[in-house]
Amino acid sequence: MTDGRTRILDASLALFTERSFDAVSIRDIGERAGLTNPALYQHFRGKQALGEALYMACYARLIDAMEAELNAAASPLENMASYVRASVKLHGQRPSPLPFLEDHQRLFGKLAVEHYGDRAISKRLASWARAGQQDGSIRSDIPVSFIVGLTIGQLTKWIMLSQMDLAPHDDAAEHLITLMRAAIGTR
Q1: Which of 149, 145, 163, 143 is CA-nearest to residue 100?
Q2: Model pLDDT for residues 17-56, shown as the tens digit of each residue
Q3: Are 98 and 127 in contact (CB under 8 A)?
Q4: In the chain, what are the domains?
Q5: Dihedral angle at the C-alpha atoms of 124, 91, 54, 69, nearest 10 degrees?
Q6: Whole-angstrom Cα distance, residue 32 to residue 37?
Q7: Which of left, alpha, beta for 136 (phi over 0: left; psi -120 to 50: alpha)?
Q8: CA proximity to 95, closest of 137, 57, 124
């Protein structure tokens, strides 16, 4: 049997995916998790703390998925492609943690960067973009911040469209990688 904290996080992810962070109450989460409000408050001091913990748990899943895709010998552009592949694969899980991450980036994103430092996704993408510009595989006339925004942004749009069944799932990662390479690659 799963522990209370895990049940709360799972219930929260499902509810926040179905509705939104603001539309879900602590009572809703407790009911979905099969716990009373006092039991929920034993694990989290409130909805904000719960949101932060859920964001960090989802972010950790994305980091782990990305690191599983990475190849130490890969080029910077291929490392960026690994991030795209990992994201698409993770989005195939239900409920997907990616919509929650995307929807709550403004609220909780700084926590992930503070916690992960140079391992944070935006910092790694920036590092790979700079390395690719140095080795000539990524266009040097595009600001690194734009490359990071484009890479994350295309995934964000695909996630949004796929939730409305307006984006393909078959070979989605490879299509997104093709778009990314066309926009920023030199080879």
Answers
A1: 163
A2: 888 889 999 999 999 999 998 889 999 999 999 999 999 9
A3: no
A4: 1-44 (1.10.10.60), 55-184 (1.10.357)
A5: -40
A6: 11
A7: left
A8: 57
Look up residue 126 and give its amino acid: A
Token pair for 180: 């990314």
pLDDT score for 162 = 87
| Average pLDDT of the residues of the chain | 91
Strand intervals (E) in the chain: none
All residues at 6 or more sequence positions from 10 whose CB lies less than 8 Å from its CB, including other chains: 2, 33
What tokens does 42 get?
């034993």
Amino acid present at 167:
A
Q: Which two tokens stand for residue 20?
A: 């939104």
Type of residue at 102: E
| Token pair belonging to 181 | 């390479």
Tokens of 165: 């069944």
CB neighbour burial string for 46-58, b if at least 16 within 10 angstroms, e if fewer: ebeebbbbbbebb
For residue 138, list its beta bridge partners: 185
- For residues 187 and 178, give the distance between their C-alpha atoms in angstroms, rounded to a whole number: 12
CA distance 177 to 173: 6
Place of tokens 């409000």: 37
Look-up of token digits 């430092």 = 117
